[in-house]
């Protein structure tokens, strides 16, 4: 194996997605999230072959509960599909592995914002709470964008039960497989104009980002900074992403 592959998931072909998520430097990632409201993993959580395999699920309609035509809903242009339960591997494992890592950050943010933190220790317990509350439908999605496609700035809220952080994983090689298609975030500032940021998703890396609000330091302590996310227009090629939201949908 070439030494240049040392930092990629390919170095550990047998490592499970959970081990890769656990190997992340979580204090550094949490610091990035605190500073910017989003942060990329330092290493891939999926190998290139796993990325291709997940992207290929798109052509197996039986794995999905519904397909959304973004133009029809005026969400942008392109398509995405909601996985049906049982969600396939490695999607299930990644969702379960990220949840306990994001939980301390979610609780910390809620404490700063003086908001309730209703999230139990495991994803299974939290999903049971969602299901009891009428949010029974799975929210992991697979997105496919072709040239000219884009995703309007939005928030993935599906009911009263909300987990405040989510994950998107890039499945293609930016620059090779597609151009354009940057992940976008905006932060609405109180009594001021909106701030924007963009991130190019390296293949297999996960971007953790704010679902609704991030804590922003204010004169009186902390206030909620409303955030939205979307994707800029893909100029050429095809872009796939895996989106992991931790609350289920009504
Ligand atoms: O395709 C992307 O990069 C973002 C998709 C999205 O809106 C999400 O994962 O919630
Ligand atoms: Fe989204």
What does this structure look like?
By secondary structure, the chain is an alpha+beta fold. The chain has one domain (about 15-245): Jelly Rolls. It is built from five helices and 15 strands. It has helices at about 15-20, 25-35, 50-55, 90-110, 125-130, and strands at about 40, 65-70, 75, 80-85, 140-145, 150-155, 165-170, 180, 185, 195-200, 205-210, 215-220, 220-230, 235, 240-245. Strand 12 and strand 13 form a beta hairpin. About 35% of the residues are buried. Bound molecules: 2-oxoglutaric acid and fe (ii) ion. The site of fe (ii) ion (FE2) has 4 residues, from loops.
Describe the secondary-structure layout.
Layout: H1 17-22, H2 26-36, E1 38-40, H3 48-56, E2 64-69, E3 76-77, E4 79-83, H4 91-112, H5 123-132, E5 141-145, E6 150-154, E7 165-170, E8 178-180, E9 183-187, E10 195-199, E11 206-210, E12 213-218, E13 221-231, E14 234-237, E15 239-244
Antiparallel strand pairs: 1-11, 2-4, 3-6, 4-5, 5-15, 6-13, 7-11, 7-15, 8-14, 9-10, 9-13, 12-13
This protein binds 2-oxoglutaric acid and fe (ii) ion.
Fe (ii) ion is lined by residues 154, 156, 229, 243.
Family: Belongs to the iron/ascorbate-dependent oxidoreductase family.
Protein name: Fe2OG dioxygenase domain-containing protein
Biased composition (Low complexity): 1-16
């Amino acid at each position: 194996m070439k030494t240049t592959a040392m930092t990629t998931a390919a170095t550990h072909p047998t490592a499970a997605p959970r081990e890769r998520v656990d190997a992340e430097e979580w204090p550094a990632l949490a610091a990035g999230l605190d500073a910017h409201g989003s942060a990329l993993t330092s290493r891939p959580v999926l190998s290139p072959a796993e990325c291709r395999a997940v992207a290929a699920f798109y052509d197996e309609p039986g794995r999905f509960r519904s397909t959304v035509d973004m133009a029809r809903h005026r969400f942008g242009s392109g398509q995405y599909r909601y996985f049906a339960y049982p969600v396939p591997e490695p999607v299930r494992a990644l969702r379960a592995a990220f949840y306990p890592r994001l939980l301390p950050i979610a609780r910390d943010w809620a404490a700063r914002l003086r908001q309730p933190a209703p999230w139990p220790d495991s994803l299974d317990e939290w999903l049971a709470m969602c299901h009891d509350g009428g949010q029974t439908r799975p929210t992991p999605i697979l997105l496919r964008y072709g040239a000219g496609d884009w995703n309007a700035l939005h928030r993935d809220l599906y009911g009263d039960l909300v987990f405040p952080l989510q994950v998107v994983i890039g499945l293609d090689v930016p620059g090779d497989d597609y151009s354009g298609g940057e992940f976008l975030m905006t932060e609405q500032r109180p009594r001021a104009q909106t701030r924007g940021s963009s991130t190019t998703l390296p293949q297999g890396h996960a971007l953790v980002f704010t679902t609704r609000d991030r804590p922003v330091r204010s004169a009186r302590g902390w206030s909620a900074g409303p955030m939205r996310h979307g994707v800029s227009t893909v100029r050429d090629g095809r872009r796939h992403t895996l989106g992991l939201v931790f609350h289920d949908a009504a």
